[in-house]
Specification:
Length: 225
């Protein structure tokens, strides 16, 4: 029931916006304009993203996602994720850098899924880091695991919220609208993907205003690449 309530809450705002504008157009109260059509398209796309992300989350949590497991150099998904997100960082004026040594051992994982997780974490970091801030994505080894990290200098997270940030639709500020942000399930999808590949995920933060570091592990590959 809680999931249904959360989905209903997330859909209510875009549906209300679309309904209000359609009624206004029909009654002649709102004049057709490029701005109006752009708004309606954006709200429709917002609902589509939510539906698509919920489907992905459902498949990931049920272990129904196809995985192409192979030895992967950690540097490669880091490079791909940075290349994908760099234009958005440049647009906002947030510095994005990477730090993944060449000689890290390969991890047994799906390259595309690692890129998806890193992209979700970078998108989250970008939304919570103000202009002139900095985000660093990197990888290192710890025992028989490879640790991927996305660290930012953004808003930070209070300690009581840290255990909950990977839950569906969780917001530290319950009253804050998600307009202009993600669907609310990106971090939950990331956790499900990492766990499906045999890893674990967590977040650390010194507190509000002091940035945050999102990290996940994947097992070192015992196969020969």
């Amino acid at each position: 029931m809680e999931v249904i309530s959360d989905v209903s809450h997330e859909l209510r705002t875009p549906l209300s916006t679309i309904r209000g504008h359609v009624e206004g157009l029909a009654e002649g109260v709102i004049e057709p304009s490029e701005e109006t059509w752009t708004l309606l398209q954006a709200e429709a796309e917002r609902m589509q993203r939510l539906v698509d992300d919920l489907r992905r989350l459902s498949h990931a949590e049920a272990g129904q996602l196809a995985l192409n497991l192979a030895p992967v150099s950690p540097k490669e998904p880091v490079r791909l994720a940075v290349e994908r997100m760099l234009p958005l960082f440049d647009e906002k004026g947030v510095e994005l850098s990477s730090a993944a040594p060449e000689k890290l051992p390969p991890t047994l994982a799906d390259t595309g899924r690692i890129v998806q997780v890193l992209t979700n974490l970078l998108d989250n970091a970008l939304r919570h880091t103000p202009p002139q801030g900095r985000v660093t994505v990197g990888a290192r080894t710890k025992g028989d695991e490879v640790v991927f990290e996305v660290a930012d200098t953004g808003e930070g997270i209070a300690s009581e919220h840290l255990p909950h940030v990977f839950e569906r639709f969780y917001r530290a500020e319950k009253s804050r609208s998600r307009e202009g942000g993600g669907s609310g399930v990106g971090l939950a999808i990331s956790r499900a993907l990492v766990e499906t590949m045999g890893g674990r995920v967590w977040v650390e933060s010194p507190g509000p205003g002091k940035g945050a570091t999102f990290a996940f592990t994947l097992p070192v590959s015992r196969r020969q690449s």
